[in-house]
Amino acid sequence: MFKILEKKMLNPTICKMVVEAPRVAKAAQPGQFLIVRADEPGERIPLTISDYDREAGTVTIVIQPIGASTRSMVNDFEAGDFFADVAGPLGNPSEFVKMSTEELAEQRVVFIAGGLGTAPVYPQAKWLHEHGVPVDVIIGARTKDLLIYEDEFKGVCDNLYMCTDDGSYGFKGVGTARLEGLGAEGKTYTQAVAIGPMIMMKFSALTCKKLGIPIVVSMNTLMVDGTGMCGACRLSVGGVTRFACVDGPEFDGYLVDFDEAMRRSAQYKAEEGRSNGK
């Protein structure tokens, strides 16, 4: 059993929970994910790690209710309650974790984060900042009310750019447009990382290709089982079939077939609708 120590709504649709899981926290690295099962008959839910504290023995997860299981996790569980299982860390850590001190000294990284994808960007930016790597972060949402993690990012990056589609806060427009503007201002980066909705990552990759910036994308939204057994997370990367859970979740954004991945993601929408009574 894994105790929920803290629960907080970050905006009307996104919930943050801090969960007691000492062994998971001890081994966690940026870029990895967990499988959470709320109760004994519950569905296995893949969730990215949005923070971890080795000393306190805690991991932080961020949940957006989409189907019946995630809706139950947000609506039916409070601080002091227990999840049945928190398994992990799973997946491969971000590539920069394996870099030498000399290699890190040459890096200048920009993150493009959208919606729920903002949360898993945080431990990556935090890790790089702690290792002396210059980090810029672009966070986008439709409106100001949907933006999350602004205060947290202020302490772990060199420059933070907030964007809203409607112009209610920060830059008016999408994150890729802000990245293009930074390029026009003379900003250069050795690496970009995009995490968010599939369509956002697709256009982030197209923008980075135009700007000549290598880009990594996180394909965690495709997962179901999380251990490579179900095959639901398969995708084409450079014409080769990969599995997001065991080969990723991060891949070269230039090589991912996003159109195929988006078609696969859409296959689950009818089931999600039925679980929500629609």
Describe this structure in words.
The protein is α/β, with parallel strands linked by helices and 278 residues long. The protein is 29% helix and 31% strand. The chain has helices spanning 22-27, 68-76, 101-104, 118-130, 150-154, 175-184, 198-211, 244-247, 258-266, 269-275; strands at residues 2-11, 14-20, 33-37, 45-53, 58-63, 82-83, 85-90, 109-114, 135-141, 159-164, 171-172, 191-195, 215-218, 234-237, 240-243, 250-252. The strands form 3 sheets. It has a 7-stranded antiparallel sheet. Helix 7 (198-211) links the parallel strand 12 (191-195) and strand 13 (215-218). The protein starts with a strand and ends with a helix.
Backbone shape = globular
Helix content: 25-40%
What distance lies between the first and last C-alpha atoms, to the nearest angstrom?
33 Å
Described by strand count, sense and barrel closure, the largest sheet is: 7 strands, antiparallel
Uncertain regions: pLDDT < 50 for 5+ in a row? none
Strands side by side in the biggest sheet:
6-1-2-5-4-3-7
Query: Could you state the oligomeric state of the chains shown?
Result: single chain
Radius of gyration over C-alpha positions, nearest whole angstrom: 18 Å
The run of helices and strands is EEHEEEHEEHEHEHEEHEHEEEHEHH
Number of strands: 16
Class derived from helix and strand content = alpha/beta
User: Counting H and I runs of at least 4 residues, what is the number of helices?
Assistant: 10
Percent strand equals 25-35%
Mean pLDDT level = 91
